[in-house]
Specification:
The complex is a heterodimer of chains A (100) and B (258). Chain A is mostly helical and 100 residues long. Chain A has four helices and no strands. By secondary structure, chain B is mainly alpha-helical. Chain B is built from eight helices and no strands. Chain B starts with 5 loop residues before the first helix and ends in a 7-residue tail after the last helix. The chains are: A mainly alpha (100), B mainly alpha (258).
C-alpha cells in the first residue's frame, strides 16, 4: 500500500494535513510580515535619530541594535536572572491595549 | 533551568513533527477505520493542545490579577490566540474526518463536536470583548476575568463530554483496552511535536510583541527629544537600561499613553 492512497480516503487525509500546514504557514507568514515592518520602521527611526552627543545619550543604542531579533540583546544578558520578568515591561506595553 | 533559544526550539519542533508524521504514514498500523484514521494523529493532539492552551491562558490570567504584571496578560492573550488558531484546525480536520467517515461535515447531536464548538465560539468572543474597552488597565483586567471564567469551562466541558451518552465520536483513551503500542508511540510523538509547535509559536508572537513595544518606546523617546531638550528627568534617562526607563513610564500614572 502506498503511504498516501489518494484514490480512497487518502484525499481526506491529505486535505486535513494540507489544511493544518497551510494554517500554520499563513500564521507564520503574517507574523514574518509584521516583523519585517517593525524592522523597517526601526531602520527608519535609526536614520532619523538626532545626533545629540553633547546633550547625552537620550536613546539607548541598544534599542536600535538588532531590533527584531527574537531574543532582544539585553534580554539575553538577563536570561538566567529571570528573562520573563525582564520582558514583562515590553510585553505589557504591547498587551495593555496595543495587542493587535 | 536554562530556556533554549527560540531558534533551537523551532528546529526541535520541526524535527519532532517530521518524525511524528513519518511514523503516522510509514509505521503506525491501520485500524478498522482504515486509512482515514491517520487524521486522528493530527486532530486529537491539536484538540488537546488547544484545550490545554486555553487552560494555560486562564492560569496566566490568574497570575495577572494577583500580581498586576502585564506580562501575564500578554501571555494569556497569546495563549488564547494560538489556541483559537489550533481550534480552527481542530474543527476543520474534524469536519474532514466526519465527512469521510459519517458522510456529513457536521453532526449536531454529537456532544463532543458541539461542546468543542461552544468552547471555540466562547473564546472567539475574547477579542471583541477585549477591544471594546479603551482603558488599558480595565481591558487587561476584564480580559483576565474572561480567560479565567472560560478556562474553568474547559475541564467541565471535557467531563461533560466523557459522561455524555450515546457516543458516536471515537474515544482516544478509554478504560477498555486503549491504543496498541505502535499507535500510542506515534500519537505521543505527534502530541509532543504539536505541543512544541504551540510553545514555539507562543514565544515567536511574544518576541514580536516585544519588538513592537520597543519600536513604540523609541518613537516616544524620539518625539520627546524633538519637543524638549534632553534633561535629567527624561523618561529614558541616560545611563539607565531602556527597560528600566520603560518600567518607570509604565508605573507613572500621570504619563499619557499614546
Amino acid at each position: 500500500m502506498p503511504a498516501l492512497p489518494l484514490d480512497e480516503a487518502g484525499k481526506y487525509v491529505a486535505a486535513a494535513y494540507v489544511v493544518f500546514v497551510g494554517l500554520i504557514l499563513a500564521y507564520v507568514a503574517i507574523m514574518a510580515a509584521k516583523l519585517e515592518r517593525i524592522e523597517r520602521e526601526l531602520g527608519e527611526l535609526a536614520e532619523e535619530r538626532p545626533v545629540r552627543a553633547s546633550d547625552g545619550v537620550a536613546v539607548q543604542n541598544s534599542d536600535l541594535a538588532a531590533p527584531v531579533a527574537p531574543e532582544p540583546d539585553d534580554s539575553k544578558r538577563r536570561l538566567d536572572a529571570g528573562r520573563a520578568q525582564e520582558s514583562s515591561v515590553d510585553l505589557g506595553e504591547a498587551s495593555g491595549g496595543g495587542v493587535p | 533551568m536554562k530556556v533554549p533559544s527560540l531558534r533551537a526550539q523551532a528546529a526541535a519542533t520541526v524535527a519532532v513533527l517530521a518524525a511524528g508524521f513519518t511514523l503516522v504514514f510509514f509505521y503506525a498500523p491501520l485500524d478498522t477505520e482504515g486509512f482515514i484514521q491517520k487524521i486522528f494523529y493530527l486532530h486529537v493532539p491539536l484538540a488537546i493542545c488547544a484545550l490545554v492552551g486555553f487552560a494555560v491562558a486562564g492560569i496566566h490570567a490568574i497570575r495577572h490579577l494577583r500580581s498586576g504584571d502585564p506580562v501575564h496578560d500578554a501571555r494569556s492573550y497569546v495563549s488564547i490566540h494560538l489556541s483559537v488558531i489550533f481550534g480552527i484546525a481542530v474543527l476543520v480536520t474534524g469536519s474532514i474526518w466526519a465527512k469521510a467517515e459519517w458522510g456529513k461535515w457536521w453532526v449536531w447531536d454529537e456532544p463532543t463536536l458541539v461542546s468543542f464548538l461552544i468552547v471555540f465560539l466562547l473564546y472567539a468572543t475574547y477579542y471583541p470583548l477585549r477591544y471594546a474597552i479603551e482603558d488599558r488597565e480595565r481591558q487587561a483586567r476584564y480580559a483576565s476575568v474572561f480567560a479565567i471564567t472560560a478556562g474553568a469551562f474547559v475541564p467541565l466541558n471535557f467531563l461533560a463530554v466523557r459522561l455524555a451518552e450515546p457516543l458516536i465520536h471515537p474515544r482516544t483513551f478509554s478504560s477498555a483496552g486503549g491504543l496498541p503500542g505502535s499507535m500510542l508511540l506515534t500519537f505521543v510523538v505527534c502530541l509532543a511535536g504539536l505541543a512544541l509547535l504551540w510553545l514555539s509559536l507562543v514565544r515567536f508572537e511574544l518576541a514580536a510583541k516585544s519588538a513592537s513595544a520597543r519600536l513604540s518606546r523609541l518613537r516616544r523617546a524620539l518625539e520627546g527629544e524633538a519637543r524638549t531638550p534632553v534633561a535629567s528627568g527624561s523618561r529614558i534617562a541616560p545611563g539607565l537600561p531602556a527597560r528600566s526607563a520603560s518600567a518607570t513610564w509604565m508605573n507613572d500614572p500621570t504619563t499619557p499613553r499614546t
